[in-house]
Amino acid sequence: MANMEHDNWNRVKSRLRSSVGEDVFSSWFARMDLEAVQQESVHLSVPTRFLKSWIQAHYAERVLDAWKAEMPEVSRVDLTVRSAMRNVAPAKEAAPQAELRRHDQAGHRPATELRSTATAPVSASHEALGGSPLDPRLTFASFVLGRANTLAHAAARQVAEGRRGDPVMFNPLYIHAGVGLGKTHLLQAVAWAGNSNPERKVLYLTAEKFMYGCVAALKTQTALAFKEALRGIDVLVIDDLQFLQGKPTQAEFCHTLNALIDAGRQVVIAADRPPSDLESLDERVRSRLAGGLVVEMGTLGEELRLGILKSRVAAARVHHATFEVPEPVLDYLARAITHNGRDLEGAVNRLLAHSKLNATAVTLEMAEREVRDLIRPMEPKRIKIEDIQRVVARQYHVSRSDLLSSRRTANVVRPRQVAMYLAETLTLRSLPEIGRRFGGRDHTTVLHAVRKIEALVGKDTALQDEVESLKRMLAE
Questions:
Q1: Is 393:399 a contact under the CB 8 Å cutoff?
Q2: pLDDT at residue 105 greater than cutoff 60
Q3: Contact status, residue 355 vs residue 387, Cβ threshold 8 Å
Q4: Residue 80 CB partners (closer than 8 Å, separation 6+)
Q5: Hey, which residues does 41 pair with through a beta bridge?
Q6: Across all residues in the chain, what is the average pLDDT?
Q7: Average pLDDT estimate for 59-66
Q8: Do residues 439 and 447 touch, judged by C-beta distance below 8 A?
């Protein structure tokens, strides 16, 4: 690079730093490099598509102005992604890159213009929207169906195959399940399938990426543009909602959720628990989430686990044609590894590595040795407050609505206190959350009930037996 070009680039960066401030410059421009200056064009690069998309959307004019101040002959700035540049053909054969250009007034065209081919990969177009990375393995074709996930799969498939303008049947679609049961697989499959239709914009974001976007937009004073970009999406997919933290971020999520649903756009959410258990979220958000279709993906049955294992072995055989896992080994793994699908995939990877690196066949003895740490004890049943209310109400011959009511008769007060005590001791819910789930009571009421039952259990053997019996029923 010529010294003059290098000097011009340093002065351009100084102008940008002065124009946008040190914080914004560090966030968006610190990793931008000058590739070349060719007549009226300047070629810059950044390391990610997200950076390219953000700079193109929000800072095109400033970048061009900074260059024109140093080199008046510059009429456009081409922005590329460095990771993509290493794999493209020579410049004269490559597809047009993202371009930042000022047009004449007669054209009435915006300062920012994206030029791309219609055959751009789905992942590239998705990342250009600012989405989280998509795993090419997580498609509907590779999703293994079983009794535990049939409804969630059918609902996700219907969302993915919809067209712009179609009536939305259920909104939002809320899928919840424990770790490794296929939530992320389904959500990414929606993004892959949905983005294959050029008429629709499907954006997949983790809760972390959504928070990052909100914070960055507030920090750079581009919150309005961030909101408009999200609300222009046809299908917004948010994964791991339980990690959404911070009042400003949650407020923005609530506004976005309402705006998209009210506009007839589809929202798909995944989390590790139902909406009612997301204590950190505002009650209005939980209510809106619960108003759509809430689907739980259950634990993997043995038949489904066997199907997942066979699918993973078949996928491995694409690259390792001689890799074979005998049927007895698959049956053993399906029976022994019960925790989640990721453990099953890890088991297949271990067998593949051991077989290839040691040039030995997979045997039952080898499998037992290699996956023994993946065989975990069964987790205790996760008890829900609703389960406690139902069991206690049945045991004491009252209704669940009685437990939630304001009635103060003796035949209702004691069961209500027992139910609150069990909720505090058998679940991870906080006192305020338990109070809300018992008719909107204050946390001090719950604390009083817990202390009351604790004291009585210590001296009343009949009540102690009742409580222990209730615990056994809930654990079954």
A1: yes
A2: no
A3: no
A4: 35, 43, 44, 45, 46, 52, 97, 98
A5: 38, 76
A6: 81
A7: 86
A8: no
What is the pLDDT confidence band of residue 186, given thresholds at 50, 70 and 90?
very high
Distance CA 32, CA 259 (A): 34
The residue ranges of every structural domain in the chain are: 3-117, 140-296, 302-374, 385-475
Mean pLDDT, range 174-202, rounded to an integer: 86
Q: What is the CATH number of domain 140-296?
A: 3.40.50.300
385-475 CATH pick, 1.20.1560.10, 3.50.50.60, 1.10.8.80, 1.10.1750.10: 1.10.1750.10
Q: Which two tokens stand for residue 393?
A: 């109400």
Residue 99 CB contacts under 8 Å (≥ 6 apart), including other chains: 76, 77, 78, 79, 113, 114, 115
CATH architecture for residues 3-117: 2-Layer Sandwich (3.30)
Q: Which amino acid is at 151?
A: L
Residue type, 99: E
Q: Which residues contact 199 (CB under 8 A, 6 or more apart)?
A: 163, 164
Distance CA 323, CA 19 (A): 59
Give residue 267's Cα distance to chain centre. Answer: 12
Higher-confidence position of 283 and 9: 9
CA atoms within 13 A of residue 439's CA, in its CB half-sphere: 15
The Cα 326–Cα 239 span in angstroms is 36
**Tokens 């959410």 map to which residue?**
269
What single letter denotes the amino acid at residue 322? T
Q: What is the 3-state secondary structure (H, E, C) of the chain?
A: CCHHHHHHHHHHHHHHHHHHCHHHHHHHCCCCEEEEEECCEEEEEECCHHHHHHHHHHCHHHHHHHHHHHCCCCCEEEEEEHHHHCCCCCCCCCCCCEEEECCCHHHCCCCEECCCCCCCCHHHHHHHCCCCCCCCCCCHHHCCCCCCCHHHHHHHHHHHCCCCCCCCCCCCEEEECCCCCCHHHHHHHHHHHHHCCCCCCEEEEEHHHHHHHHHHHHHCCCHHHHHHHHHCCCEEEEECHHHCCCHHHHHHHHHHHHHHHHCCCEEEEEECCCHHHCCCCCHHHHHHHHCCEEEECCCCCHHHHHHHHHHHHHHHHHHCCCCCCCHHHHHHHHHHCCCCHHHHHHHHHHHHHHHHHHCCCCCHHHHHHHCHHHCCCCCCCCCCHHHHHHHHHHHHCCCHHHHHCCCCCHHHHHHHHHHHHHHHHHCCCCHHHHHHHCCCCCHHHHHHHHHHHHHHHHHCHHHHHHHHHHHHHHHC
Q: Residue 86: its pLDDT value, please?
A: 40
